[in-house]
Design a protein that fits this description.
118 residues; three-stranded mixed beta sheet; 3 strands
């Protein structure tokens, strides 16, 4: 399938799941996650949803809880909102790019402080 179409579908899935989490979900866990993006497989069978959370929890445990407990609920809600033949299976992955970006910023700031102290 066309990459542009896959990205558009992924963006639509991200938007709809964010809306479901904010307005319809009763689970407090879903209210505290932020979705950062979605990658859809070329056959639309899987959607890998990337998220971050400000909660001080183990990211692997949080990822497991989302995949085991809430993915089915969100998939059902998503099926009612989007118009595609088969709703993809949702797989949640913690997005460590935000933490990596903060780490890079800290390194750059440290380098600037060392240069200014010379």
């Amino acid at each position: 399938m066309n990459d542009i179409k896959l990205k558009r579908i992924g963006s639509h899935i991200t938007k709809e799941i964010s809306d479901i989490c904010a307005t319809e979900a009763h689970d407090s866990l879903l209210k505290y996650i932020t979705l950062t993006g979605t990658e859809v497989s070329s056959d639309l069978s899987y959607a890998k949803i990337f998220f971050v959370s400000p909660l001080p929890r183990d990211h692997k445990a949080l990822e497991k809880e989302l995949n085991d407990d809430t993915a089915g609920y969100l998939r059902t809600k998503l099926a009612n909102r989007i118009e595609i033949r088969h709703t993809p299976k949702l797989v949640f992955k913690y997005d460590d790019s935000v933490a990596y970006g903060e780490h890079i910023e800290d390194i750059i700031e440290e380098i600037h402080e060392k240069e200014n102290n010379k």
